[in-house]
Amino acid sequence: MKTGKRLLDFYLSSSIHVALSVYAMVKITGFLFQISAIENTALFAFFGTIIGYNFVKYDALARAQKLQMRKQLKTIVVLSFLSLMACGFYFFQLAFQTKAIAVVFLLLTLLYTLPFFPNRKNARNWAGVKIYIVALCWVGVTLFLPILDSGHPLTAAVFLVAVQRYILIFVLVLIFEIIDLQYDDPHLKTVPQQIGVGRTKTLGALLLVGFILLEFLYADFNWQALILKSGIALSVLFFLIFAHENRSKYYSAFWAESIPILWWVLLVLCQ
To answer: Do the beta carbons of residue 200 and residue 174 sit within 8 Å?
Structure first.
């Protein structure tokens, strides 16, 4: 039992789970736009997410010498290094324009983590900014990277998917912000800190309604897609409604983060 818990904790702490969610979202893009040659982009996103998330989580603490090199952390460092090598390999498999966009999101990640300007905090600590940067990076990496790499045109459907995906990630991050409310610095001005937990849940619910209603704007609207996305929206709403400060880390970091993976699995089964 203890071994299983240690493995699960390592799986979450090393960002493998969130990377798998990103991988799933890229594969969903492939399904939505019939992109068959998407594996290079998906694996680039997977390994890049491990690097990016681990860098964000551990860099500041390591530089402040608040982290001792425990065995688990050493393993995460090795995993991140191997992921960096794999990410570099798949980066060179991408089209030129995809590489350019990937560099933009790398710079966003660095801006989010490192203080580039004298006497200024990093973007992660800028009041109220975190949730928008995270949602933007997810949309860019999981949607626009594979679209550009495949040469698919930027149609109205692509931008509709972008808005829907931004809404979905935004609401998922709201769940994390509610659960982390007791730990977050008040100066971060997260959504729950600014408007309260109740209004945050109401905001999330309204956004999910918009997520579903946007489905009717697609030129190739079909009921199967509406039913599937409604089910995903209801799953997110369930986690949002029952989120509170005393929830365990597994509630958001494992279960809520699994929703993109569930969506991908359902798409595969429905083919």
So the answer is: yes
